[in-house]
């Protein structure tokens, strides 16, 4: 299984060709992003209206060419720009990073680049946190609120607001408050992980077999579940919380402690304030169905039930479909459909979908897989450190920062759980 992201659309607004603009073009090319270059604000606006780019990089080093902030405001006045990230390249070095630029003759040279936020009109924060790294290999922009940005984009593609009869402003507030409740101090279980799982979920929802199985309400539930599935994760595992006698472990009787907390908190946050209550306008029965589905999916991410979920899925869906194929009945669409759309099987499909999304890191391009492996290992190392300090049982002795081989631990994880 491999996951490929939609090709990112990038618009570069540079009045003149120079080493900097070349570097961005080169980085986009290397990363496989579609890139347009505009020389003037007018050309930039025209191009944006046509392509609705995901990322716009404006050259703000030379004010004599054009007014970058005015251009940003003009872009922001276009309604479809809300999900677009706009960043500026400036001369001031508030953040200084080294990247590799390529000269026309093909030589690589190291250069510094500075990125700062440009704030557009209308309160849309168009932020780049100022970190653009590894330009030599890929274009990676760390956005300060990945779940909010990606959520707005994905939810709009799936028509979630229309389904919920909810204004986009409510969805935005909801995504923001959910994102705020993720701990940015966690190296792994932060809102970037939630955005990542949301992305993978959306990817799976587009697969033909999944589409055959699920109804619109299932899709909406899956996207919501993905966004909230680790909210307020403390960066420690269930076993740690139980051993430490934490409040959460006591509240949930040592049973699916974190998953229960994520689901419960998500609904508390959502329904306690109308401003972010995305469920406010749906019917009671629909709400109950949606709520049930979201809870079921979030609880399914508990890893102790991993094999139970996988076995049920294989026995109820994979094997019957394989039998149909063996009998030469694979043309029998009705039989396939009845397996895929049986209510109990739809539940299994949704569980499998979020589980696959949750552990999909090894299916990402290698550099992202390595990055995530490093992040989860760091979170586990910190837990082991704390267990040692507090005299608690060490629940994952493999994840000791002094002895751990991250590649070996990843191979075990992939062999046991992913493949
Ligand atoms: Zn997760």
Question: What does this entry look like structurally?
Answer:
The chain is an alpha/beta fold. It folds into three domains: 1-119, Rossmann fold (3-Layer(aba) Sandwich); 146-358, Catalytic domain of cyclic nucleotide phosphodiesterase 4b2b, CATH 1.10.1300.10; 363-418. It contains 18 helices and nine strands. It has helices at 19-31, 41-51, 68-76, 146-157, 160-164, 168-180, 191-205, 208-213, 216-228, 238-243, 247-251, 257-271, 284-300, 306-326, 333-341, 343-358, 366-390, 406-418; strands spanning 9-13, 34-38, 55-59, 85-89, 97-102, 108-113, 115-117, 132-133, 140-141. A five-stranded mixed sheet has the order 2-1-3-4-7, with helices on both faces. Strands 5-6 form a two-stranded antiparallel ribbon. The longest helix has 25 residues, at 366-390. It is globular and about 65 Å long. The site of zinc ion has 6 residues, from α7.
């Amino acid at each position: 299984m491999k996951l490929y992201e939609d090709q990112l659309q990038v618009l570069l607004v540079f009045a003149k060709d120079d080493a900097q603009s070349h570097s961005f073009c080169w980085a986009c090319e290397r990363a496989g992003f579609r890139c347009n270059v505009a020389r003037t604000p007018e050309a930039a606006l025209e191009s944006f209206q046509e392509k609705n780019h995901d990322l716009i990089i404006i050259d703000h080093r030379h004010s004599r060419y054009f007014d970058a902030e005015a251009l940003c405001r003009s872009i922001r006045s276009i309604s479809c720009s809300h999900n677009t990230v706009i960043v500026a390249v400036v001369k001031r070095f508030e953040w200084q990073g080294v990247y590799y630029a390529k000269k026309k003759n093909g030589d690589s040279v190291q250069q510094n680049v500075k990125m700062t936020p440009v704030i557009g009109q209308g309160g849309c924060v168009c932020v780049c946190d100022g970190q653009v790294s590894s330009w030599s290999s890929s274009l990676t922009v760390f956005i300060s609120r990945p779940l909010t940005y990606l959520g707005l984009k994905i939810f709009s593609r799936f028509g979630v607001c229309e389904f919920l009869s909810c204004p986009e402003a409510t969805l935005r507030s909801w995504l923001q408050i959910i994102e705020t409740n993720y701990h940015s101090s966690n190296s792994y279980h932060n809102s970037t992980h939630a955005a990542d799982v949301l992305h993978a979920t959306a990817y799976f929802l587009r697969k033909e077999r999944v589409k055959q199985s699920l109804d619109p309400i299932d899709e909406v539930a899956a996207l919501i579940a993905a966004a909230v599935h680790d909210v307020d994760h403390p960066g420690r595992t269930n076993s740690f919380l139980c051993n430490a006698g934490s409040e959460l472990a006591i509240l949930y009787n040592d049973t699916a402690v974190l998953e229960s907390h994520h689901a419960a908190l998500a609904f508390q946050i959502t329904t306690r304030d109308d401003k972010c209550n995305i469920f406010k306008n749906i019917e009671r029965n629909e709400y109950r169905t949606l709520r049930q589905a979201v809870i079921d999916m979030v609880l399914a991410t508990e890893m102790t039930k991993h094999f139970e979920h996988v076995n049920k899925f294989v026995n109820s869906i994979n094997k019957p479909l394989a039998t149909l194929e063996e009998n030469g009945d694979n043309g029998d669409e009705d039989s396939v459909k009845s397996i895929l759309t049986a209510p109990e099987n739809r539940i299994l499909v949704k569980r499998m979908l979020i589980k696959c999304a949750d552990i999909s890191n090894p299916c990402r391009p290698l550099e992202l897989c390595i990055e995530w492996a490093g992040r989860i290992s760091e979170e586990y190392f910190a837990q082991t450190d704390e267990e040692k300090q507090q005299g608690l049982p060490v629940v994952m002795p493999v994840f000791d920062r002094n002895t751990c081989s991250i590649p070996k631990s990843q191979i075990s994880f992939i062999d046991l759980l992913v493949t």
